[in-house]
Write a structure and sequence with these properties.
The chain is of the alpha+beta class. It has 4 domains: 248 residues, 2-Layer Sandwich (BirA Bifunctional Protein, domain 2); 103 residues, Elongation Factor Tu (Ef-tu), domain 3 (Beta Barrel), CATH 2.40.30.130; 158 residues, Threonyl-trna Synthetase, Chain A, domain 2 (Threonyl-tRNA Synthetase, Chain A, domain 2), CATH 3.30.980.10; 130 residues, Diaminopimelate Epimerase, Chain A, domain 1. The strands form 9 sheets. Strands 1, 2, 5, 6, 7, 8, 9, 10 and 11 form a 9-stranded mixed beta sheet that branches. α8 crosses α9, α14 packs across α16 and α24 packs antiparallel against α25. The longest helix is centred in the C-terminal third of the chain and has 36 residues. The radius of gyration is 38 Å and the shape is globular. It binds adenosine-5'-triphosphate and magnesium ion. It is found in: Cytoplasm. Keywords: Aminoacyl-tRNA synthetase, ATP-binding, Cytoplasm, Ligase, Metal-binding, Nucleotide-binding, Protein biosynthesis, RNA-binding, tRNA-binding, Zinc.
Length: 878
């Protein structure tokens, strides 16, 4: 069976059991402060489990792209070293939202594995939750009895809380679970050691493939469990592990999920994958694994960056680069060359990568280039460190922890690479010191971002924070829950209303601000954000009385100015696609009352002419005063209409579609908009720049903001015009002014040169004999220190041999001195201009200087002793 047909079989099986098949949610999570990435199939359904939202269908199945590289579930260090943990993997799952429970979940899993996939029953073990005293939870008798109807009793094992009680994160839905484990060892091995003893013991051939969670609790912040409103089923089966079992392989990497990428890597690097535990094999596995995580997260809209989710992607990418650089001996960018093959392989399941493969490839190549440069610098640094340590080999045989940490932190060197290079040079590394530096760093970043959130205090559980802000900007409602938060030692509060007119930050549009009035007491709403499906108002304090009616009012002006920019963003997006091409896809956006910012994929700078064309189209659409139509419809219908299908919509029955002339702009969007385009008044692009490889940024203004912007620009023109004495044509006036300026400057320079030449002649005529030396010493009037030097040069040909010149001048309140000595005297008598400057001149003028032996200059603060300077040099000759 190919991996594709294994996946299809799973989905078909659950379709036949009344499940709706839904698409995978994006890997990158948007509205959940507790998670950066989807780490389990259930994430996108969290609201259904918590009862915050009603599902469209009570039975659902899918394959979900998951990433386990941060937070509670982090497998990164295992990946590639073992053969069954991935960064990104597909989780096949079936769900019941308050519908069927343990009985069906257990018997269907058995039917699928043994009846449909035909896995031998004597290779399967199942586990049930054995209870936990501390939590006050009993063992799961119900699940055990149900399993007994299918499996021999001695193949049913009891598990502890760690393995058999599943939790998504520190808080949230959770419950006891049953795992299904596969014994993939040979018959000989199985006879020798009872498989039972190897379950959940990290044996590479006895692995968990499916976890069936019976969701019945919500974990609170203080650790307590509270029962969920309804009971649910949440299952997750590792697709790559299932494929390996069904294809009879010893390693996930030997299946057709990875073999294509591995073969391509072999061709590119000229190395061979043997599947053993060597670093070369680990490198192959790391690359085959990481390329998927990198490709799919970028396709889901997350660019590598220095913070948050973007930083996690950057680290995964760098880990892959280090492995091919160090162990496959490949010193140029490799990963981007594998992207095409990967996109083709998954085009049928996750078309988002194929659709953007050119863009993703470009981003990856740029990252690889940059990191390879850093890596090379790091290796040089490493050489220095090794060299230094070598120089003091007698005392130091260890690279200190600080240096190792700098290599890690600044150059992306993992500790094991540092250790390897060190040991090749007969050195050790201070592991304790490194760990201490690492702990310090962790503490620093924790302190910087720590957000302490209390549990919700629920006043009224009915109110699901219904959003009415598309139609109304104020309402009288009640508080449904609130909690205290603490960030950077500052306390504030979050309030959820029963109904709310406040728009929560999303889709680039900033959250609304406004007022909550409780009786006489008005509290400002400083921001509004979404957490899953709850709209949360941020307030600095709580009112005296919380449980009465509250008047909720959005700041109407800010909201209007923001809506203007959101509608403008849609007009801009469509215009960019018209002018630049349909490869233009949104990569990020910010919409607020001041301006809009729009990031999109495009490979070249947008020229002034293109910008002008875009502006013209948008302003034309504004003048057409097109009504902005907003419709809710099933997602498929929207896509069929030609809506720009932004990959990355969560599963939900209906989508909101914003239409501005069906032949011009149709977008899926949850934002707030104006009634018709005329309200934008005028649109103007204010900036164009690059943000990342293949991503450009345009900033623009519309509505009152564009009026302010234009007035600002016109103000500048007016001021310039006034300076130009209200010339009719200020540009021509300015040009002629600049030309005049250049001519005057040239003339002045010529005049000065003439004057200096005259001065030189005069000085030469006044030269006197001091012993056998021709001496010129004078306080002169010149405009600059350069002019002083120039006079010296001019003097040279006018003086007979064996001369000494000293000129001093007061220039703009400061003393300036030049001393010139004939070369013959420099060689013949050992006289040196810098020495005289230092010893005789500098002290007199309170300054310093230097230069060539035959010509040196000095500058100083004191201009009162210029005549004394001349005498001091004359004295040096005598
Ligand atoms: P393990 O103990 O093997 O790490 P887990 O207990 O973390 O697994 P669950 O959180 O129950 O796994 O996830 C459900 C299923 O997803 C697992 O049974 C397994 O098949 C698969 N799975 C979990 N983590 C990974 C991973 N890092 N790579 C590939 N598959 C995974
Ligand atoms: Mg795990």
């Amino acid at each position: 069976m190919t991996s594709d047909s294994i996946r299809t079989t799973f989905l078909d099986f659950f379709r036949s059991k009344g499940h709706e098949i839904v698409p995978s949610a994006p890997i990158v999570i948007k509205n959940d402060p507790t998670l950066l990435f989807t780490n389990a199939g259930m994430n996108q359904f969290k609201d259904f489990f918590l009862g915050n939202r009603e599902p469209g269908h009570r039975r659902v199945a899918d394959t979900q792209k998951c990433l386990r590289v941060s937070g509670k579930h982090n497998d990164l260090e295992e990946v590639g070293v073992d053969t069954y943990h991935h960064t990104m993997f597909e989780m096949l799952g079936n769900w019941s939202f308050g519908d069927y429970f343990k009985k069906e979940a257990i018997s269907w899993s058995w039917e699928l594995l043994t009846g449909v996939y035909k896995i031998p029953k004597d290779r399967i073990y199942v586990t049930v939750f054995g209870g936990d005293k501390a939590e006050g939870l009993a063992m799961d008798e119900e699940a055990q009895d149900l399993w007994k109807q299918h499996v021999d009793a001695d193949r049913i094992l009891h598990g502890n809380k760690k393995d058999n009680f599943w939790e998504m994160g520190d808080t949230g839905p959770c419950g006891p679970c049953s795992e299904i484990h596969m014994d993939c060892r040979t018959d000989v091995e199985r006879l020798a050691v009872d498989g039972k003893t190897l379950v959940n013991a990290d044996h590479p051939q006895v692995i968990e493939i499916w976890n069936i969670v019976f969701m019945q609790f919500n974990r609170l912040k203080d650790g307590r469990l509270e029962p969920l409103p309804a009971r649910h089923v949440d299952t997750g089966m590792g697709f790559e592990r299932l494929v390996r079992v069904l294809q009879g392989k010893q390693s996930n990497y030997d299946t057709d999920v990875f073999s294509g990428t591995i073969a391509r890597t072999e061709r590119l690097t000229g190395k061979t994958y043997t599947g053993d535990d060597s670093k070369v094999s680990v490198a192959f596995r790391v690359i085959a694994d990481h390329i998927r995580a990198i490709g799919f997260t970028i396709a889901d809209g997350q660019l590598p960056s220095n913070t948050g989710a973007g930083y996690v992607i950057r680290r995964i990418l760098r880990r892959a680069v280090r492995y091919y650089y160090s162990y496959l001996d490949y010193k140029q960018p490799l990963l981007h060359q594998l992207m095409d093959g990967l996109a083709d392989q998954f085009a049928g399941v996750f078309p988002e990568l194929k659709a953007q493969v050119e863009f993703v490839t470009k981003v990856v190549k740029e990252e690889e280039d940059a990191f390879l440069r850093t890596l090379e610098k790091g290796l040089k640094k490493m050489e220095d460190i090794v060299g230094e340590a070598g120089a003091v080999r007698a005392t130091a045989t260890v690279i200190d922890g600080k240096a190792a940490f700098e290599l890690y932190d600044t150059y992306g060197f993992p500790f094991d690479l540092t250790k390897l290079i060190a040991s090749e040079n007969g050195l050790g590394v201070d592991e304790k010191g490194f760990a201490a530096e690492m702990a310090l760093q962790k503490e620093r970043s924790r302190a910087a971002t720590a957000l302490d959130t209390d549990d919700w205090v629920v006043l009224n559980n009915e109110g699901g924070s219904r959003f009415i802000g598309y139609d109304s900007l104020e309402t009288v409602t009640g508080v449904s829950r609130y909690r205290k938060i603490k960030a950077k030692n500052k306390e504030s509060f979050q309030i959820v209303l029963e109904t709310t007119p406040f728009y929560a930050e999303s889709g680039g549009q900033v959250g609304d601000t406004g007022l909550l009035t409780f009786g006489e007491e008005a509290i400002p709403v400083e921001d509004t954000k979404k957490e899953n499906n709850l709209t949360i108002q941020f307030v600095p304090r709580l009112p005296e009385v919380l449980d009465g009616p509250v008047l909720a009012q959005v700041d109407p002006e800010l909201r209007k100015a923001t809506a203007v920019h959101h509608t403008a963003t849609h007009l801009l997006h469509a215009a960019l696609r018209k002018v630049l091409g349909t490869h233009v896809a949104q990569k990020g956006s910010l919409v607020n009352a001041e301006y809009l910012r729009f990031d999109f994929s495009h490979f070249a700078k947008v020229t002034d002419a293109e910008i002008a064309e875009v502006e013209a189209i948008v302003n034309q659409k504004i003048r057409e005063n097109i009504p902005v139509m907003i419709r809710e419809m099933p997602k498929d219908e929207a896509v069929a209409m030609g809506a720009m299908a932004l990959f990355g919509e969560k599963y939900g029955d209906r989508v909101r579609v914003v239409i501005i002339d069906p032949s011009y702009s149709i977008e899926l969007c949850g934002g707030t908009h104006v009634g018709s385009t005329g309200e934008l008044g005028f649109f103007k692009v204010t900036a164009e720049s690059a943000v990342a490889a293949g991503v450009r940024r345009v900033e623009a203004v519309a509505g009152p903001a564009s009026e302010r912007y234009l007035n600002g620009q016109l103000g500048v023109v007016k001021a310039v015009r006034e300076q130009l004495k209200n010339a009719k044509d200020p540009v021509a006036a300015l040009e002629s002014l600049l030309q005049e300026h250049a001519e005057v400057k040239k003339r002045l320079e010529r005049l000065e040169a003439k004057q200096l030449a005259a001065l030189s002649r005069e000085l030469a005529a006044g030269a006197v004999a001091v012993g056998d030396v021709r001496f010129v010493g004078a306080v002169v009037d010149v405009p600059s220190a350069d002019a002083l030097k120039k006079v010296c040069f001019d003097l040279k040909p006018l003086l007979e041999a064996a001369y000494v010149v000293v000129l001093a001048a007061a220039i703009e309140g400061k003393a300036s001195v030049a001393v010139m000595i004939d070369e013959a005297l420099v060689t013949g008598r050992g006289w040196e201009a810098p020495k005289w400057i230092k010893e005789r001149v500098a002290p007199l003028i309170s300054g310093g200087g230097g230069g060539q032996k035959s010509l040196a200059t000095a500058g100083g603060q004191d201009t009162s002793k210029l005549a004394a300077v001349i005498e001091a040099v004359r004295a040096a000759i005598q």
